[in-house]
Amino acid sequence: MYTDINFKTKKALKESIKAGARIGVFQPGPFGGNEPRDGIVYLEGPHYPAAHSWYARAVVKNGYIISVK
Predict the structure, then answer these.
(1) Cis peptide leading into 46, omega within 30 of 0?
(2) Tally of structural domains, the chain
(3) Are 41 and 34 in contact (CB under 8 A)?
(4) Half-sphere exposure (CA, 13 Å, Cβ side) for 46?
(5) Closest Cα partner for 52 from 19, 6, 4?
């Protein structure tokens, strides 16, 4: 899955969450549209076509990321 914003680093994502940004997630391609609104998701970035250089486990609540590991 990807974040709504194309973060170049996991550190940038973590800083945005810590600052209170509301960031959602989405699954591109034919598997999209059924993203969980609550629970654990696994992220990768930056977005395609760039090579993925970071991966993360995130907790989503009401459709927005609340924590990242």
Answers:
(1) yes
(2) 1
(3) no
(4) 8
(5) 6
Query: What pLDDT is recorded for position 48?
Result: 95
* Boundaries of domain holding 54: 2-68
Residue type, 1: M
What pTM, to 2 d.p., does this model score?
0.91
Could you give the CA distance from residue 58 to residue 4 in angstroms, rounded to a whole number? 13
How many C-beta atoms lie closer than 10 Å to residue 5's C-beta? 13
| HEC-encoded secondary structure of the chain | CEECCCCCCHHHHHHHHHCCCCCCEECCHHHCCCCCCCEEEEEEECCCCCCCCEEEEEEEECCEEEEEC
Residue-wise pLDDT for 43-53, tens only, equals 999 999 999 99
AA identity, residue 36: P
